[in-house]
Design goal:
Layout (H helix, E strand, L loop, with lengths): L6 H14 L5 H8 L3 H14 L19 H14 L5 H12 L5 H11 L26 E7 L10 E7 L4 E7 L5
Helix pairs in contact: 1-2, 1-3, 2-3
């Protein structure tokens, strides 16, 4: 029989085997495993009677008692395919709760959507390719103009600020105006 054991279980098995074969004392094993000597005796007896499988958790490999039924999962994924195929998991969950009165956790819905296909996690998406913009050759060839309507000088000056930024040399020219137009 194949037994799935964690690194911790394997380490525990090796130490308890050494105790059983008298290569290690129970007190020393208790210190190594950070358990009591009495518990080491219990584990050794369990190992002798039931084998290595007794050291692993009995529920390992079993499905959770709290998981959703397969019918419920299929019903939710069907609704998502029909109505919310282009929604993110969070927004789809809001709509499922609001319109259909169905509630699951956001992470559960995200995992279901990833497994079913309508959602790709950010790590699996193709990176967006942006065209590089090189610096211009001449001064004044590309000027960025930004405007801000704010009383910058508390009534002592015009309210509209225009900023001209030359992309070539990153020079800023500021101009205050009463209107947003030039």
């Amino acid at each position: 029989m194949l037994i799935t054991m964690s690194e911790k279980d394997i380490h525990r098995f090796k130490v308890l085997t050494d105790v059983r074969e008298k290569r290690l004392r129970q007190v020393d094993a208790a210190i190594i495993l950070n358990l009591s000597a009495r518990h080491i005796r219990r584990l050794v007896n369990k190992l002798v009677s039931l084998g290595a499988q007794s050291l692993t958790h009995a529920a390992r490999g079993r499905p959770s008692n709290r998981r959703y039924s397969e019918h419920f999962r299929i019903e939710i994924l069907k609704l998502i395919r029909e109505h919310y195929s282009d929604f993110s998991p969070t927004f789809a969950l809001e709509k499922l709760t609001e319109r259909h009165n169905l509630s699951v956790s956001k992470e559960t819905l995200r995992q279901w959507m990833i497994a079913d296909g309508p959602w790709l996690p950010h790590s699996q998406r193709k990176p967006r390719v942006h065209q590089p913009r090189y610096r211009r050759d001449c001064l004044g060839e590309l000027i960025q103009i930004n405007g801000s309507y704010h009383d910058w000088f508390e009534g002592r000056c015009d309210k509209y600020l225009l900023v001209f930024i030359d992309e070539r040399v990153t020079v800023q020219h500021k101009y205050y105006s009463l209107l947003s137009g030039l």
